[in-house]
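Repro:
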Amino acid sequence: MAADRPSDAEVSTVLPLSAEETAAQAEAIAAALKKQADWDEKNNKAIGSIKLRLSPAIRQKVLGMTSAKEIWTTLKKTYGKPGVSAVYTDFKRATSIIIPNDANPSAAVELIRMHFDRVSAAGIPTDPDSTSPNTSITQITNFLII
């Protein structure tokens, strides 16, 4: 047997744990298990809350996911950007704002700018590039600022 082991191998001697060390280790394990149980409970509640607000078709897509963060990330990635109708609604609201003749126009201009910022955030370009004419949506709103 001694020939099977290299000559420089050391034999490890592990001493048994004392009663205090065993108790401390048991406490640490119990605390970790409690922490995990608390996290599991909160995760399950979050999953339930999210799934209650989903349509049945979307709920099927997240059926096998086991953490609320995983579900939330998937939903945000899939549905996080506004759709065409939301972008059109923001554009329509921006173009239908009436600037009053007898009042300070800054509030109306800020509303227009806010709606165009939402359109820009959706990925619709509002500034000119080399292929578009010299007029851009943001230049129009900048022109309105007096």
